[in-house]
Amino acid sequence: MRWLVGWSSTASGPVPPEGRAIQPVGAQLLWSDPDPLWAVGDWRPDEVRVVQADPFTRLAVFGCCGATDEELRVGLFAARGGALRHLTAWPGSYTAVAQVGRRITIAGDLAGARPVFHTDWSGGTAYATAALPLADLIEAQLDVSHLGALLACPDSPEAVGDGTPYMGVRRVPPGHALVLRDGARDVTGYEPTASLAVAAPPLDQDTAVEGVRDALLEAVRARLTAPRHAPATEGLDPGPVPGMGPAERRAARGAPAPGIGADLSGGSASATLALLAAGLPGMPGTLLGHGTEAGERLLAVTFNDLATTGGARTREAELERAGTIAANPRLHHVVVAGGEEALPYAALDTGALTDEPGPSLVIAERHRRRLAAGSADHFVGHGARQALDAHPARLADLLLDRRRRHLLRPATALAKADGPNAHSFFVPFTVYRAARRLARTSYRDGVREAAASLLERRFTDDGAGVAAGAVSASLASLAWCRPGPAARWLTGEALAEVSVRLEEAALRPVLLRRPGERRADAALARYAADHRVFEQAAEVRSQRLHAPFLDNQVVRACRALPEALRVQPGARASVLRTVLAGAGIRDLPTGWGATSHAAHAASVRAGLRTWLGDLVGLFDAPLLADAGLIEARVVRKALRAASEGERLPLDGLAELVSTEVWLRRLLARRGTCWTGTAAPRQRAVAGGVVPRPTL
Question: Is 70 exceeded by the pLDDT of residue 413?
Answer without folding.
Answer: yes
